[in-house]
Each structure stands twice: as C-alpha cells, then as structure tokens.
Amino acid sequence: MKTLLLTGFGPFAENTENPTETLVKNFDNLVINNHKIISHILPVEYEKSIHVLDGLIERTNPDVIINLGLASNREEITPELISINYQHSETKDNAGVIKKFSKINPSGKESFFSTLPNKEMIENINLINGTKAKLSSTAGTYVCNTVMYHCLKKTQQDKRNCRSGFIHIPPNIAQEDLTQVLTACIKTL
After folding, report:
1. Order of strands across the sheet with 35-42?
2. pTM for the whole thing?
3. How many CB atoms lie within 10 A of CB 39?
4. Which of 12, 14, 38, 166 has the greatest number of C-beta atoms within 10 Å?
5. DSSP per residue over the chain, as a string?
6. What's the pLDDT tens digit per position in 158-188?
7. Cα–Cα distances in Å, from 104 out to 59, 146, 178?
8. How many CB atoms lie within 10 A of CB 75?
9. What are the Cα distances from residue 24, in Å, to 3, 50, 86, 159, 165?
10. How far apart (Å, rounded) are the C-alpha atoms in residues 125 and 182?
C-alpha cells in the first residue's frame, strides 16, 4: 500500500471558511486506489507552513502529496502546473506577515513543475456532473504557491520517489461534490 499525504488550509483573510479544511479532514485514514491517506491542515503562514510540511514529509515518507488550497476568485477546480520562487501579496498571512517582492528560497531554482497527473485529473473531474476543471498556470504568490514550491523542491532535492502538486478549489462547490472530485483525482494515481 502507498501513502498519500493530503493537506489543506483553514480560514484566512476575509475567508471565514475554507472548504479544503473539511474536505481534508474527511479523507483522513481512508484508503482509495491502494493509497492510505494521511491528512493535515497546514497553517496559513508563510514560514510555519513549510516547517510543518517538512515534518509531515519526514514522518510519513509519502509516495504522493496533494496540497489543496482555496482560490476564492475562481469558479473552476484548478490543478496547478507550476510553482514559482516568489512571494508577493497585499494580504497578511494568519501570523500577520506580508511578503512583497521576495523569493521563497533566495538561492533556489526559479520554478518547479507539478509531478501529478494533471491532465488525467482534469479529465476525471470534468466527467462529474456539475463540476468543471481546467489547468492553471499560476499558483499565485501567496501561501499556496509557497507550499507548492517548497514541497516540490523538497521532494526533488531529497530525490524522493514522490509525486506532488497543488489543486486550487473554488468556494462555490458543495462538500459532496468536492468528495467526488478528490476521489476522482486519487483514482488517477
């Protein structure tokens, strides 16, 4: 059996609810497509999120990592293609930190590409009645991008045999539908 590390986030900024929090908690300890799921809610904080993620990766030694985040300005489910080595937002993280014009890793690579089967995930999601998915070429420059970048950097630099990536969830999808969506994504692994 393989291990799938699944992460989401809690509320942040003006978002009093984050659908990824409930979704991730509901999948904890499930087995889907021969993957045992270990779930965790990351803090919506630039620094703390990557430290928590490091500990989770070391402790669970996952075969796959799917990070989920809320994209409050999107209407489709969007698996992310690429993360960039950049942080910039007017929005404070939950620790009150604002990052502007800064690199995640000053000496690191400029970008990392997702290693998840995004094409197959999108095809499976679009088969579910009432849901739409499309590829996104930007994970933004807030905490979601920081987590995606750091996760890909860590799994690739440590030469782990681990696929990882990020999926943004819009706010307007019911939890029952999100459950179907995430199950469809895991079935592509």
Report:
1. 31-32, 35-42, 2-9, 64-70, 163-169, 78-79
2. 0.96
3. 21
4. 166
5. -EEEEEEEE--BTTBS--HHHHHHHHHTT-EETTEEEEEEEEPS-HHHHHHHHHHHHHHH--SEEEEEEE-TT-SSBEEB-EEES-B--SS--TTS----SB-SSTTS-SEEE--S-HHHHHHHHHTSTT--B--BS---SSHHHHHHHHHHHHHHHTT-S-EEEEEEE-TTS-HHHHHHHHHHHHTT-
6. 787 899 999 999 998 999 999 999 999 999 9
7. 23, 7, 30
8. 12
9. 15, 18, 26, 26, 15
10. 8
Residue type, 152: L
The residues facing 7 across adjacent strands are 40, 67
Structure tokens at 21: 């929090």
Whole-angstrom distance, CA of residue 32 vs CA of residue 6: 12
pLDDT digits (tens, 9 = 90+) for 116-163: 999 999 999 999 988 999 999 999 999 999 999 999 999 988 787 899
Instruction: Return the structure tokens found at 64.
Output: 């796959």
Encoding tokens for residue 40? 């965790």
The Cα–Cα gap between 173 and 20 comes to 11
